[in-house]
Design brief:
With 311 residues, the protein is α/β, with parallel strands linked by helices. The longest helix is centred in the last third of the chain and has 17 residues. It has 11 helices and 14 strands. It binds guanosine-5'-diphosphate (GDP).
Amino acid sequence: MKIVALAGGVGGAKLAHGLAQILAPEELTIIVNTGDDFEHFGMYICPDLDTVCYTLAGLANPETGWGRVNESWNTISNIEKLGGPAWFRLGDQDIATHLERTRRLKEGQSLSQITRDFCNAWGIKHTILPMSDSPVQTIVDTDEGELAFQEYFVHRRCEPRVKGFRFDGIQVAEPVIGAREAIESAEAIVICPSNPWVSVDPILRVIALIPVPRSVPRGEGKKIIAVSPIIAGKTVKGPAAKMYAELGIEPSALAVAEHYRGLLSGFVLDDLDAHLSDNIETKTLVTNTIMNSNSDRARLARVVLHFIGSL
Ligand code: GDP
């Protein structure tokens, strides 16, 4: 069964890893958000892409969900001693990824080519694609003004109240080569349990499932299913529920289903939200969606694939 998974960072990477445990390499393409990419110390950093790659390669830090396992922090602690900014935690092994990526980008290589080479080096067999080779920058409009995404997310710890989002560059960002073909030949698109506002929406826009004026939706006739990142009104991690609340929407799995209204053929929500199922206009699957271990990820992926088969 050919599947395209859309993923942000932590939540997306977990389900993508579950799918990769079950599907053969030629059956799975993971398209990853690059809207939170940014430049720091002259390095081009792709937090979501790296989280997905490290997770599939078995190199991710299991405690944080981001960064590398068995990491050391010599560089950032020495930068801190020199009075430099240390709010974005960069491990020594992780820095190697950013340095080499930046060197290649400066040579004129594309982000998708670099990602392919890195995946090969890390032994990843499934296809991981950045959503676009051209930069898209998520800007968060807050009660303290507009903030670049990592400034809001990491430096300000999501404290400012959110008023809206903007994705600079999205109007001209084409999907990378291979994304369109993967979508066309896939039986289904799985929207992983990632932040709908800042992880999934940018991908949906770039691949034109949410139409932007220049293009026609490309997912018509496809099964599209989403897994809720919100469980019992809360996120497992991150600001998605806080964002819903600040935008005047009660955070819930129902709100996530509404967010993707008109797009979905099926929606997966947690056992704790079983009571919401009847209010969701598409077909639903109620199951345990918490992925604490590798086997939890595989279990949820298996159930999701079975659900797709039943639609
Ligand atoms: P980020 O870019 O690193 O914030 O990552 P994502 O957007 O991919 O993931 C954030 C979302 O993942 C949050 O809304 C979490 O609630 C959700 N999430 C994380 N772990 C799990 C999990 O085990 N199950 C479910 N259902 N959602 C999860």
